[in-house]
Amino acid sequence: MSSSKIKNDLFLRALQGETVERPPVWMMRQAGRYLPDFMKLKEKYPFFERVQNPELATEITVMPIDQVGVDTAILFSDILVIPQAMNCEVEMVPGRGPVIPNPIRSLSDVEKLITPPAEESLDYVMNAIVHTKDALANRVPLIGFAGSPWTILCYMVEGHGSKDFSTAKGFCFSQPKAAHLLLQKITDMTIDYLKAKVKAGCDVIQVFDSWGGLLSPEDYNTWSLPYMRQIAQAIKPHVPVILFGKGCWYALNDFSEAGASAIGVDWTLSPEKARGIVGPDVVLQGNFDPSKLLSPIPVIEAEVKKMIDGFGPQRYIANLGHGILPNIPVDHAKAFVNAVKQYSA
Amino acid sequence: MSSSKIKNDLFLRALQGETVERPPVWMMRQAGRYLPDFMKLKEKYPFFERVQNPELATEITVMPIDQVGVDTAILFSDILVIPQAMNCEVEMVPGRGPVIPNPIRSLSDVEKLITPPAEESLDYVMNAIVHTKDALANRVPLIGFAGSPWTILCYMVEGHGSKDFSTAKGFCFSQPKAAHLLLQKITDMTIDYLKAKVKAGCDVIQVFDSWGGLLSPEDYNTWSLPYMRQIAQAIKPHVPVILFGKGCWYALNDFSEAGASAIGVDWTLSPEKARGIVGPDVVLQGNFDPSKLLSPIPVIEAEVKKMIDGFGPQRYIANLGHGILPNIPVDHAKAFVNAVKQYSA
Fold this sequence. Notes:
The structure is a homodimer.
Chain A: H1 10-15, H2 36-44, H3 47-52, H4 54-67, E1 73-74, H5 81-85, E2 91-93, E3 97-99, H6 107-112, H7 118-121, H8 123-136, E4 142-147, H9 149-158, H10 166-174, H11 176-200, E5 204-209, H12 217-223, H13 225-235, E6 241-245, H14 252-257, E7 262-265, H15 271-278, E8 283-288, H16 297-311, E9 316-320, H17 330-341
Parallel strand pairs in A: 1-4, 4-5, 5-6, 6-7, 7-8, 8-9
Antiparallel strand pairs in A: 2-3
Helix pairs in contact in A: 4-8, 9-10, 9-11, 10-11, 11-13, 15-16, 16-17
């Protein structure tokens, strides 16, 4: 780990459970559409060109460090590079989101998927990491991320975004053997991918279970948690691992037991309740409602203080409860970050 | 109330907290796209014609009583008849869902909305109720429904369906005065509407807060709960009121205190946990994952038994945790209903 050389290592120290001078702060999707400079690149280059070109990925990744002042970078990429590497085509259709032209619907579809070494099949990600680490010059750490196997399955089977992913769920409930084989293949590919990302220079890994909250607590234990656990166990000997499940308020203790260094929380759980569930020793991350950044700046400042008071300023990483929205004014995002930096109990 | 004359009054007795021989059962969206006879009408008549024509609304409402064997009817209608009556145009665009061509974005937009007497402005709903009660001939009760004021606001401000309704939330956070005025106008219109529905013959009212789960617990107490409470208080002297908030697991006790006769639960809360939160005396309704109806029939039967065991067979109404999906085979829906009817502890 290169953490000892990083100048602003607040985020890493908080992840290790150390007592810190203030909570570190970053924002999910911090390199996103609310930044005018991001929009310029978005208009010029298609989505996967921005992901695959190391210079572009670096420029986007570093943008919020310079422009918003967050305490860590997170590599600009996409969770669906995993199906692409497994030979399942993914297109990004402007205005519609990801589309999988040939979705997975049977055991034989699953059996045809490959799990090639990530260092070769996703070499452009590793190149982007090396390039980004150079550009960061040890100012802040770099997070690498992956989708949870359940969330990746949702897209691979449904074939596109959905509010309920009922085709994907139906696939699990009607063809459980094929579904578990698919989840295991995604898990194997993801572990290899994340190990390669750490080797290339990522200081921290976050796993996003964006669609975990569509499952009942019992189904979560069947279809998502065991695979998140495999990933956490494989990666945590190397770098800290943050587990985040959107809508998975019922799984916080499970994430902790699975080996998470920190646990992401969304805003459907109050800070006090989240802290009450896991106790004082577990590092939590979250949970500002992204829409609330549309409030007037004094309201944002007051709400940030209330949030930190609720979680407590130690063993806590300030963040949003989900990705920042495209319609957030940049000065509101900065107000959020600055309110954390100026926090005093 | 006409309940004393209804032959199958199991649902009404359960709502009144009486000890019953088995849990009553119905399904949200039970008159829906999974029924081939519904699809024939859907192909022949546009959405709002089906809603506005009393003969069509009656035919659709009665369908699942005859074809699936549920213990109550629920009037075929739409939550967005309320904005229509308030002079806010709503179109139903096939494949896209509801579209509001001129969404509400300012205090002056809100001030222009009207709240005319529902008996006149929504007379077609009252006609459909009278017609449906005739067709039901007191076989089972009839539920009337409305959307929660928060959920109606989401559509009126956003202008269409959305996964986060961030424009609607931004409207509340940046223009709270206008948002509260809008919510109060919707509430006033809804109370008048539901009173007229009861007068026309509805035996039970359910309020759907489909988008309540997008709010934090604290914001729920600001933007949704107070208006749900006004509705429950106004209607419960007349008929039982069921409050259902999708994703609102944190509000069960609040719903109970607001005066709900029963509380709907989705599948993100286990039956045991839901029962544990509200205690043995509160009537709960739910919470089968609609996607789980894609499981093989023996699995559906086993899961239904487990669900009823979890809630306990008294003070409980068997239902799904959200609307039935279009891709559910009819015999799977019947298996769900029959498994409840055959339940023994």
